[in-house]
Amino acid sequence: MTTISAAKMTASQFFMLGEDPPGLRLELVNGEIAVSPSPAFDHSFTDSQLRVILGQHINENDLGALVGDIDTIFDEFNVRRPDILFIAKARLHLIKGHGIPIIPDLCIEILSPSSATSDQTEKFDLYAKTGVPHYWIVDPKGHTFDAYKLTGKKYAKKISGRDRDILKAPPFPTLKIPLAQLWSPID
Predict the structure, then answer these.
(1) Whole-angstrom Cα distance, residue 81 to residue 88?
(2) Nearest alpha carbon to residue 100 among 77, 68, 71
(3) What is the per-residue pLDDT across 104-136, written as a single tens digit (0 to 9) for each?
(4) CB neighbours (10 Å) of residue 154?
(5) What is the model's pTM?
């Protein structure tokens, strides 16, 4: 991720920029515009597979909405785009206008070489500080899955798995996630 702004900007000012330029993905990070490259095949594959597994469970149980790569306002100076996020049905009425103006119930980040540090440190801290109840970090290269739950102001790891494990992770206690389905066939 590369930062391209010099002056600190608010979320409102960031939205005045309009849609991302073709081929670029912009986020507001601590009041500065940051540019991210598009994801690699393994990242995209994991993202797609996880959306199918989660989406089916969420739809079958009428739990809420699953979306991804959408501007999400975490505070006045941070508009991030989690790879996947979940909003519980009871809170969907709070979403109006551009992006997601509320804290998601679950944020999922899929690691890429360009995002791994940010996902595991900056976003980890931001999501905890702003009250995201659940955070998953999925590593398609290392074939690992970690699910965290906010306890007080810090995340506690609730489940961890790798390779071919089948997991149940909060906030979906009855959903079985077969990790083998998440990993790219062209490692």
Answers:
(1) 18
(2) 71
(3) 999 999 998 777 677 788 999 999 999 999 999
(4) 11
(5) 0.92
